[in-house]
Write a structure and sequence with these properties.
Elements lengths: L3 H8 L3 E2 L4 E2 L5 E4 H4 L6 H7 L5 E8 L8 E8 L3 E2 L2 E2 L14 E7 L1 E8 L5 E7 L2 E5 L3 E7 L5 E8 L7 H6 L3 E6 L2 E6 H9 L1
Antiparallel strand pairs: 1-2, 3-4, 4-5, 5-13, 6-7, 8-11, 8-13, 9-10, 9-12, 14-15
Length: about 200
């Protein structure tokens, strides 16, 4: 028989919505060198990678597996830019493509790039404190901090979903989110690359 204390430990986690820390759990940290390939501005990346700032951290909770179970993670993306591109996650698809995911914003101001793998359509939606974003199946997704404080959020998905970083790593997203005149602007990646070359 499981005691009430053991059940509480197994089912309840304490977290800080301001810092993005789950008590007793170590996050996975991603520094610029770990995510550098996502940034289009290679010159700005080369200059900043010498300092190798911390870009984001994710603490995964994946104890429950099997039919009907969920995994979740608490993410925090720090404020910063590579050139004019805001700090962002690597982005991924799910190994089980039909799996959807829900993101719940706790703090900060961000955006998510959502790219449908079947149609190629790519769009950006807002993710901020007290908001949610639904990510449909077959959709690559990347989270971007467009504010000046940490962006903290939960991601909740099926335990069967898995993560496919390789597909996104090979082709990246069709759009980028950059700062122009002090505000975030969504651009076609190819257009942004042409601007960099001009």
């Amino acid at each position: 028989m499981i005691s009430a204390t053991e059940l509480d430990r197994a089912e309840t986690l304490r977290f800080d919505p301001l810092t993005g820390i789950i008590a007793g759990r170590a996050p996975t940290s991603r520094y610029l060198v770990d995510v550098g390939a996502v940034f289009a501005d290679r010159q700005a990346y080369t200059q900043l990678v010498v300092k190798n700032p911390l870009v984001y951290e994710v603490t995964q909770v994946e104890e429950h597996n099997g039919d009907g179970q969920v995994h979740y993670g608490l993410g925090i993306i720090y404020p910063g830019k590579v050139g004019s591109e805001y700090f962002m996650t690597k982005g991924h698809l799910h190994e089980w493509r039909p799996a959807a995911e829900v993101y719940i914003g706790l703090r900060g101001r961000g955006m998510m790039l959502l790219e449908d793998e079947r149609t190629g359509e790519c769009r950006a939606v807002a993710l901020a404190g007290n908001s949610t974003v639904y990510v449909p199946g077959y959709t690559a997704h990347r989270t971007v901090n467009v504010g000046d404080e940490p962006l903290v959020y939960w991601g909740i998905l099926s335990s069967a979903a898995g993560h496919d970083y390789g597909t996104v790593g090979e082709r990246n997203f069709r759009k980028v989110i950059v700062e122009k005149d002090g505000r975030p602007v969504v651009m076609d990646r190819d257009e942004f690359l042409r601007e960099l070359e001009a």
